[in-house]
Structure formats: structure tokens, C-alpha cells
Amino acid sequence: MDSGIALLTVFVLAVFVGFEVVSKVTSTLHTPLMSGANAIHGIILVGAIIVAGAARGTGALVVALIAVVLAAVNLVGGFVVTDRMLEMFRPRGRDGGSS
Amino acid sequence: MIPIWAQLTYLLAAVCFILALKGLSGPRTARRGNQIGAVGALLALVVTFFVYDLDHLLLILVAVAVGTVAGVWGARVVAMTQMPQLVALFNGVGGAAAALVALLELHAVRSSSVPDLVAIAFTVLVGGVSFAGSMVTFAKLQELMTTRPVILPGARWVFIAALVGSLALSVWLVVAGHWWLGVVLGVVALVVGVLLVLPVGGADVPIVISLLNAFTGLTVAASGYVLENALLLVAGTLVGASGTILTRAMASGMGRSVTNILFGALRGGSTAGSTTVSTRPVRSAGAEDIAVLLAYARKVVVVPGYGLAVAQAQHTIHELGQVLEGKGISVVYAIHPVAGRMPGHMNVLLAEANIPYEQLAEMDQANGDLRTADVALVVGANDVVNPAAKTSPGSPIYGMPILDVDEAQAVVFLKRSMRPGFAGIENELLFDPKTTLLFGDAKDSLTKLVSAVKSL
Questions:
Q1: Cα pseudo-dihedral B110, B113, B118, B120, rounded to 10
Q2: Tens digits of per-residue pLDDT, B341-363?
Q3: Which of residues 50-89 of A touch B (CB under 8 A)?
Q4: ipTM
Q5: Going by DSSP bridges, is the β-strand pair B375-379/B435-439 parallel, antiparallel, or unpaired?
Q6: What is the SS3 assignment for B377?
Q7: Which pLDDT tens digit goes with each residue over B262-273?
């Protein structure tokens, strides 16, 4: 199979998975969900690292490194702040957070 | 081509992201879900360093470290009340990173195929819009600029011109493939992003963040296509799809359509509202009187709003709730889906004060509770209980589902002043005969109420 078509197939399937996994989320968790999804797209860090590693010339390298920094802020900061929020969600009878 | 084991690890990381989103959909599994996502991201990063033949390795590691430190610092110091701004900021930098990656791809490979160039043009355009738009939402939420819709003269035409121009540039880019066209496109995209978000009113800004979040997700997916990296493709698509659903869910929570939120102000009409302070008479009372009202109720419904969070009064309201429960009064917290400044924001803030989430009632349940409530205690909320959403079609919040506090036997507002809420609309309920107001900082007022109720 042509790799472009393979990627397109993956894309279409992922759209359906994306719709499906969040279709029943309660409004209680909208903020953490937005923040968590936000962290996931920080994975562009992988792309930034790949282009930085292949950069030719100082200008391209500088731009690529800026992209790496920005993506790392998005990825790491996103997961940490989501965890900080979710840490506080506890059910009644808060012994250790499990219910 | 990267080795099979590396591709399998990327697949594993993609599965982690799916599980993360799945987990985030329920309060019990949410934290673990997020941790699974973080593990997936870590796996993907480690693999990337091993399988790609990277030049400038040391510089890259330093850049990752710098970004990590900055991200962790930001995530740790932010107050829970400022969460929407931080999400906007993180989203913006993600969009910028995606756009820069696409520009570099364009620069490095001069004769790309048409599908690649389409994906690159898309990423530069949407990434630029997402970055600029997020920065404007950040400025609005941080109150670095006015939270009211900003409509420049002729804004509609400038916006349309910029949009058409950016699309034309995209086509040119795909045909010609010059990298400097990408740079020009990026700059125009920034203008489009700013113009897109400027006319959006403060109360609607969180929905725009969610939308831009979905945009950034799609740019990451497009980058995945160009780099032939299935992980980026899956992760980006997941965020794009789930972000779209989430945006629609939030918009329907406010009774608005996404197009209405984005372009309503440009069409004119929905910018009513004022920031003037009303001089009409209201009935206000001291903490002792209100304590009596509360202590002799059977059921109290607390409606917390952003004012509660600003005053850092989450713990005090919990204390008041516990004192009332100690007197055998049933206490429910009615949470409007957009209470606070972002959908679900209030739940985060109350969770911070250790209020168990079983006590938090969502819209439909809360309105049932309000019908049988003796007292509705509204703390620092305004727009989400404003009957104008039902009664005055000209109002900017018309059609937004509200908490029917007017159904309760008595209504108590704790307010700092008579200034209108975030949306800038006067609330008729304040002048209703069954309404009593207690003026002052939410935390001070609640502290007084706690001691007054205790001493009864």
C-alpha cells in the first residue's frame, strides 16, 4: 500500500477514535480534559527534535531549537498542570484518594 | 525508514494517548489516564533520540531541558484561578512549534510532493492562527487588554481580506514551493489569528481556546503526515477530533453555536451590555440576618462563581457548608457548566478545597434541587444565574442555559459591588423582592457567615 494512503487511513480511523473516546465526558472534567488534550499535542516535540537534528545552517538550527523549547513547554507543562488539577479530584471519604 | 521496534514503540505511545483521553473522561480514572499519557510521551521521546541520526544532539538536549524547566515552573506556580490562561499559553506555543517545524521542512526539502506541500501550507497557516489567537485569548483572560469584544472599523473586511489572502498564499505555496512564501504565509496567519479572536467577548474566550486546541492538534497531525511519523499523526488527530467534540459540548452548554461565538460580534448586534454601575435600589442585609435565613432552612443550594475563586474563598465556603450540614441542613453545590472562566473550571476550584465531587450538582440536577431549595446562596456568580438569558432576546447571553435560582424560596447574593459580571449585563434578579444582598469580599462575607451561623 502506498504510504500516503496508509497515513490517510490512519488519520481517518484516528478521527473516529477521537470522537468516540470523549463523547461521554461529564462537564465536571472539561477543564482537565482540555488541558490533557493540550499536553498530548505537545508531542510535536518529536517532530521538532527530528528537524533540529537534520538542520543545515545556523538560521535553520536556531529556529528548530526554538521549536524544540516551545514544544517541550507545551508537552511537559501540559502534563504537569493536568496532574496538579486532577490530584485534587477526590471522592467523599478521602483516604488516599481511592474509592 | 526507522526500525520496526521503534515503530512499534510509537504505536504503543499512540495507544497510551488514546487511553489517556479515555481515562480523562471519568473522575476516578482521570489522573491515571493523564499519567499514562505522560508515560507514552516519554517513551516516544526516548525512542526518537535512539533511532534518528541527530546532529546537534547536545544543543537539542539543552533546548528540551530549557523547555521542560519552563513548563514545569509555569505549571507549578499558576494559581488554579488562572488555569484558562495557562492552557491558552501552552496551546499557543504548541501551535507555534508546529508551524516552525513545517517551515523548516519546507526549507530543507525543496521539491516536495504536492500532498506534502498541502500539509505544510495547512500547518503554517493553522499553526500561526492558533499561536496568535491563543496569545490574544491569554491577554484577554489575564486582563492585559479589555475582555469586551474589540471591533475595529471595517474589521469584517480586513478579516475576509486576510483570510482570502492567506488561502491564496497557501495555493501559491503548493504550486511554487518557495520557502519564503511559507514565511509570508506564517505572518499573514498571525494577522488572521489576531483578527479572529479580537471580536470574541470575554465570556466566550474559553470556547475559543478549546477550538484553537483542536486546531493545534490538526497541525500536529499534518506534521506527522509530512514527517511520515504515525505517532504525530495519531496524537494530533485525536486532539483535533476530541477538541472539536469538546468545543461543541461547551458551546451547547452556553446555548450558542461555535460560528455565533466567533462571528456574532462581527455581524453586530450581540455587543449589548455595559460596565456602568447601576444606581437602582436593592435590599442588602448584614451577615447575622443572612445567617438566620440559612440556619433555619432545610435545604441550601450554593451557586459558586468566579468571584468566589478570585477571593480564594473555596475553603471558607466548604467550612460554611460543613457547619450547615452539622445543623442537619442539606447542602448542594450547583455548578454551571461554564462557572468560573472555563467549562469545568469551578469543579477544579472546589476540588482544590476538598469538597467531594458527589456534592457537586450539574445543571439539570441542580435545577431540580433549586425548585425545592429554601435558600439559594449565590457567591460571586452573576451571568450564570441571570434570567436575562431566558427573558430578553437582545441580551448577549440570551439562550444560555442558566441555573434557575429564582425558583428557590429566597435568594442571597454575596457580591463585591453592583458592577455587572464578566459578560457586562445587568441582572434583574438582584432587584427581585425575594433577593437579599450581602456586600463585601466573598471570603470576608463567608467568614462572617460561618461565625454567625455557629453562634446561633
A1: -40
A2: 777 788 888 888 888 878 888 88
A3: 50-56, 60-61, 63-89
A4: 0.90
A5: unpaired
A6: strand
A7: 777 665 544 444
